[in-house]
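Hi team,

Filling in the usual template for the complex we talked about on Friday. All components are listed, including any nucleic acid strands or ligand strings, so the model treats them as one assembly.

SUBMITTER: L.P.
PURPOSE: interface mapping
COMPONENTS: two
RESIDUES: 944
SEQUENCES:
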Amino acid sequence: MSELLFKGAEWDFDTIRRVHDACEAIAQNELGLSTYPNRIEVISAEQMLDAYAANGMPVLYKHWSFGKRFARHEGLYRKGFQGLAYEIVINSSPCISYVMEENTALMQTLVIAHAAFGHNHFFKNNTLFQQWTDAEGILDYLEFARGYVTECEDRYGATAVERVLDAAHALQSHGVFRSPRRRVPDLASERRRELERRAHDEAMYNDLWRATVPASGTTQRRADDERRRALLELPQENILYFLEKSAPRLAPWQREILRIVRQVAQYFYPQIQTKVMNEGCATYVHHRILTRLHEQGRITDGHYLEFLQSHTNVVFQPSYDDPRYGGLNPYALGFAMMSDIARIAEDPTAEDRDWFPAFAGCGDAMGVLREGWAAFRDESFIAQFLSPRLMRDLRLFHLADEEDEDALRVAAIHDERGYRRIRRALARQYDIGRTDPDIQIADVDLAGDRRLVLHHRVLDRQLLQAEEVKAVLQHLADLWGYDVVLKEMDPVEDRILKEHHAASRPGIATG
Amino acid sequence: MHIVDRRRNPGGKSLANRQRFLRRAKEQIQDAVRDSVTGRGMKDMERGGEVSIPASGVKEPALRRAAGGNREHVLPGNKDFAEGDRIPRPRGGGGGGSGQEGSDTGSGEDEFRFALTQEEFLDLFLEDLELPDLAKKRMVVGEAAGFRRAGFSSTGSPANLALGRTMRNALSRRIALKRPKPEALEALEDQARAAEEAGALERAEALRSEIARLKHRVLRIPYIDPLDVRYRQFAPAPRPIAQAVMFCLMDVSGSMTEGMKDLAKRFYLLLYVFLKRRYKHVEVVFIRHTHEAKEVDEETFFRSPETGGTVVSTALEEMRRVLAARFSPDDWNIYAAQASDGDNTASDNDKTAGLLATEILPACQYYAYLEVGREGDHGPIGFIPRETDLWRLYTALRADGLPIAMRKVRHRKDIYPVFRELFRKGATTEASP
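RESULT (copied from the run log):
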């Protein structure tokens, strides 16, 4: 058992297989992880850049923005401003990990432990991923999407397709369902259903308009308002979904493209919400596995030092006043939290017992962690598990920046009075419900000029960036086919703070 | 667990997206490319390079929050803050911990920098320019190696098997050797059978032995013999390609300053790059002159100083000599660009005009005259700038209908616009000050 997995920095495919098997034994037997089957793909630096450009997806439809991203990364990489990631991992089944050919044998081990077991376990077990993504279907769906977009380009011209994609991308951040829906996503049937849907939609949306033309009379009108909103599923937070279903003047293929963009956005939605946990889980797992491999005598002391060096680089957290500071490092925070939870489970202090009576000293660190990884997202995980001790270690403090005041105020520091407030504030910082502006389609003026009305419920007086809103609304109006207005509302005082208008241009909507 | 080696997969997966991106941002990129030329040295010209374009052109808008409003940050590394402390707001708005959403979409930046390949660079740089009078009837001889068919051979690789030729050989051999045809054999068989039925046993016997003999013959003469097999043969052959020669004529007398030479050099450079794109093979001849002219190499042409008077006709004379010796106008597309500060010895003007009109211009595809001046060289206020000798001379020639393109350039930044003006599609060769 104590045979070395590899010597030196060179590796071949046998090495990778041995490393994978050794990691798997530890992951399954000692850490109790449950993963999708693994597929490890060795790629070159250029292919890594390709993968960057496509958000890590192995296939994706064609669009200039991906070319832009590629050009940007390539430029940075060539000049040496940016190294490349050692790996990219895809939430799919089998779980695909891309590893770079330049990595040393030790780095490949680290990457396999990190991605093929850490991230993989997280993808498979976290409830958000289970609710929102379909790991079995995603690769086929992307293949379908690429084919579909190409076919549309052939049939309707690249420019026409690009316009729809541009508009859809602008609205992508508001093309997701934020709360779970009845149906479990099943991407495999998307392809089949696309044809049925096309036929059905064409028959249906005309009916919708007929059914909602208001009759006279005030009571009648109010009833009709209700009915119209119900039929159009208003208010609606998923703008792309609304357009796909109800925009009156889109061609069926345009609706399908909106749907594709929306599905991709939805696929990434859980990843945004679990950055800290996901990286924390993967980092904690690789740390455990590598340490264990060293204990078993399967990697040398020298390799273990090489590992520790990369590991410390990854989990480095500069202080707020350090020039290198760029926000809280999700690897650092994640890893610190996981290690802290393990410590509390196995060797708690009196304070920990006070704060975490449920699991302090229970002895089963991996059990607690696995449950945590499965059931939470960043916001709730931090609200639940961030311990006073960790806040002290990180020396966290809470800064309030009120618009009306001319100075920032230290609202809480790591002391008895501050722990809970800091924890709450940090959790809020990761709450996607707060970080993403809350914008909904409120109503459609079907009786009049068919104007689409959107509301932005302004939180903490944070208005939208006017320039960007203008551009996005223009795209929205183009898709909708009529005027669009976005009202920024103060939800407390219920008054309108700002309005943005856009009128539809000819080009996309033809119907 | 599977391991897949993707390294051998065809690269350039992002190429389609890149082209879409370049098309999208074409105008901005083109501007950037042209701007970047001003700052480039001669050798960089043909390389690709980094350009930056305003980010607004390729912006991907999204519904984002603006700075401002009430915000809160949780930051690590508290050193001596206590609750309730007040900190002056750092300049630049919100500051602090909002950096965590590091934007990889390039949002929030003024400029977008990226690298273009040489091919892309030149494409954009020279787009919608064209060479006037490009077509010459006989564009021949270059050094590009190609293969052409060179008959048939009896040896070769199976891939080159010439089936038709092989079957034809086989057929003629079979005819020549009188290989019995299957129909003939069948007919004999029928006769033999008929003879047997008729009871003519002797005849049947004879027929049978004839059949046996013929069958034996069929076996001895194969349907296809190795002798018949032919292979297509290919021989390396130079493929005729269009070729061009570019004459750079320059006055290097004392009155030409380094700055002026630099201007000329830039113009030659553009012309060279441009010709390079249109012709596989471009020769460059450098002729410099004072009161006498000489063909020199590039280094000498641009660097080494020279003194003397100015006699333009010597350069034209030298050009004519080189033309006669090496570049027959029948085989070559000839381009000439002359750079000068406009001085000429007065007595030489007639000779110059004569040479141009009778010898040089008829042979040339294109003749451009570039008059370089000192920056800020506007002459005394109130005077109309003096027209130089050469300018007047060439204007007169143009008036006679001879094709000379003429431009004046005073500053580096004018070079490219002038060049574009000369070569833009549908441009006519007219003079402009």
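MY TAKE: Chain B touches chain A through 68 residues (CB under 8 Å). The domain at 243-423 of chain B is CATH 3.40.50.410 (Rossmann fold).

Thanks, L.
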